[in-house]
């Protein structure tokens, strides 16, 4: 495992200098899920949650979250994202919503944090919109499943 890049020789937190890195097409895909009671899933699928269309609002929130990542994560670079896609799908068998976010740009640093933030914010939005009927929802398994671009090449999760 390589050394942490966000600390200098004295242990101080630093923003990594990416000025010398090549500009490449970079893509990151993150996934996660939120599990809930079957009755909550039924409300979401029928569109009868009092706060509105849960899936659409969560999708938009995820996109907005990706765009605000450097405001939330202290050492993240502000990036000129070229694309953010957030997909939510209902798995009625498991009573969960699976969330996938894809972030893209041409730049000097990766977009993993933006994809992870998009999934996290989308899941938190589902929770917020449904908490009045189901406080037992569980957000889980948020992770990077694909990353490409840059010097380190391609990462693909098992």
Taking the sheet with the most strands, its summary is: 5 strands, antiparallel
Q: List how many beta strands DSSP finds.
A: 5
Please give the count of helices: 4
Radius of gyration: 17 Å
Helix content: 25-40%
Report the average pLDDT across residues: 94
Query: What is the string of SSEs from the N terminus onward?
Result: EHHHEEHEE
How would you classify the helix and strand content by structural class?
alpha+beta
Oligomer: single chain
Distance between the termini: 18 Å
Give the overall form: elongated
Q: State the strand order across the main sheet.
A: 2-3-1-4-5
Low-confidence stretches: none
| Strand-residue proportion | 25-35%
Which characteristics define this entry?
158 residues; alpha+beta; 4 helices
């Amino acid at each position: 495992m390589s050394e942490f890049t966000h600390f200098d020789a004295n242990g101080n937190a630093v923003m990594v200098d990416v000025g010398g890195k090549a500009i490449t097409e970079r893509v990151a895909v993150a996934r996660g899920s939120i599990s809930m009671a079957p009755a909550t899933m039924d409300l979401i699928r029928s569109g009868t949650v009092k706060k509105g269309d849960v899936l659409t609002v969560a999708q938009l929130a995820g996109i907005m979250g990706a765009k605000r990542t450097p405001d939330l994560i202290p050492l993240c670079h502000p990036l000129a994202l070229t694309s953010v896609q957030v997909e939510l799908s209902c798995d009625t068998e498991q009573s969960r919503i699976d969330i996938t976010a894809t972030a893209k740009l041409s730049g000097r640093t990766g977009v993993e944090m933006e994809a992870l933030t998009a999934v996290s914010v989308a899941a938190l939005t589902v929770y917020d919109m449904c908490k009045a009927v189901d406080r037992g929802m569980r957000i889980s398994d948020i992770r990077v499943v694909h990353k490409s671009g840059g010097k380190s090449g391609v990462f693909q999760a098992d």
